[in-house]
Every structure is written in C-alpha cells, then in structure tokens.
Amino acid sequence: MPQTIKATATIELPSNFKVVDTDQLGNGDSLIGKTWNMADLRDWLGNKSKGWIEDNILYNPKYSHEIQRMLDERLIIHHGKQGSPWKFKAYEMAKFIDKHWSEFNW
C-alpha cells in the first residue's frame, strides 16, 4: 500500500513576480513581442479602413502628442512619406486603443 504525506510549504516570490489564475492568461495569443502592420491593426479594429485609422487615430490632433511619443519611442514606425509602411508594437498599440476606445468615431 502506497504512503501519502501531506505537506504545506511557504515559497517567497521575487517582488516582480505575480501568481495569476491561468484562466486570466487567455489562449496564449499574447501581444507582447509582436509587431503589427496596417493590415493587422485593421483586423484588430474590426476591418476599419486604412483611411479611417489614419483620420481617426494616427493623424487625429486629439491624439497627436501620444502618437508622437509612440513614434519617438519607436513603438510606432512610419517614415512620414505617403506609401511608407506602418509598423506598430502590438501590445502598446492595443493598450492605446483600449484607453481611447469609447472616444473613436465608430
């Protein structure tokens, strides 16, 4: 007959670690470390057009300071000329969108 021992242990975690419920982790589709192009951002926004994204978000004066900061920090990459591709750090752009979601002209 196998023997069973029940034990309780205390484990100290470093201050930068957190224990989270695995249900909060989602399905593994983390945005951390991912890069979006304009097509990816369009998908994230429910297939809004490139023009809509540029008019309502990227070139909207209301967000110009935040967008410029993201450009300066290279969270958004665009060379400023027409036809130049956009690149977005997915996690940071998703946070921006969530922050301003209710303000957009849907």
Topology:
Layout: E1 35-37, H1 38-44, H2 50-58, H3 64-72, E2 76-77, E3 87-89, H4 90-100
Antiparallel strand pairs: 1-3, 2-3
Uncertain segments of ≥5 residues (pLDDT<50)? none
What is the overall silhouette?
Answer: elongated
Strand order of the largest sheet: 1-3-2
* Rounded Rg: 21 Å
Report how far apart the termini are: 67 Å
The run of helices and strands is EHHHEEH
Percent helix, as a range, is: 25-40%
Whole-number mean pLDDT? 89
Counted by DSSP, the helix tally is 4
Structural class: mainly alpha
Tell me briefly what this model is:
The chain is mainly α and 106 residues long.
Plain-language structure description:
With 106 residues, this protein is mostly helical. The protein has a domain of 74 residues. The protein has four helices and three strands. The chain has a three-stranded antiparallel β-sheet. The N and C termini lie far apart (67 Å).
Descriptive tags:
106 residues; mainly alpha; 3-stranded antiparallel beta sheet; 8% strand
